[in-house]
Hints:
The chain is mainly α. It is built from 10 helices and 3 strands; from the N terminus they run H-H-H-H-H-E-H-H-H-H-E-E-H. Strands 1-3-2 form a 3-stranded mixed beta sheet.
Amino acid sequence: MAYERLSEFTAPARAAPDLWRIGAVLGLMFVVVMMLQQLVFILLAALGGQDAVRAVFEAEGTSPGQTLAALFSHGLFAVALAIALRAVHWRGFLSLFGAGAHAAGDFFRVIYWLVPLYVAAIAVLPTEYDIIRNEAMTTNRWMLYLPLALAAVAVQAGTEEVFFRGYLTQQIAAGTKPGNWAWMAVPAILFALLHWTASAGDNAIWFVLWAFAFGLAAADLTARAGNLGPALALHIVNNAVALLGVAVPGPVAGLALYHTPFGADAGVIPGLMPVEFALLFVAWLAARVAIRG
């Protein structure tokens, strides 16, 4: 499979393609994130005292406010990546997105296709369980939270995309021989491992496999388009549905309008995964159609 636009997408990385720089970026990001977290703690403590710190960071994170804090906290990693990218590779954060105009155009084209698809899937696909209304979220309250919630999802999903399909894909592709598929496989594997959670019990492997498939789909879209637009759209729409629509109860389910009647470790999960994989496959095909030409 040829990806003519992959070379264009990785061009910014070829000025400093040494693979050891990835390790340097990761190390610097770790230090910067620790510093930023301490700064946030200090500001919260100064403004609201230790109660504010505990309310945001030390509880289970199931309230709308705590969910927003958890999602927006990914922005610290984006800031750290921008700093490390400039220090180690001498290039700017926007170079991770590919050509700006094309990225924006592809993003909105894919959004146009995926939103109706996911809405239809929610309305049409049969379920063997009854969803439960989130008692903390009336419809009016959910609508009030929605703009901020969508922004939080965009920060969370966007940070993951600029790192895995932006930075890692560009640097690995630039630092390896043409025809080497490490640029697709390595970020997908790391992305999948990031989704391993002990609270899911035996079901953890299913979430890892789904995340690996998602990583491959997002990498394919990125290489085909030559920019991050389609992968960003796919990730944001998927996470918005999963976190703001019908969510599995857990630390980041506070903004959902509905909850499933079971947790991530429930025995029903394996039976639902074929539908999840099928929806991802259809969404990937729709995104490819949206950016064709």
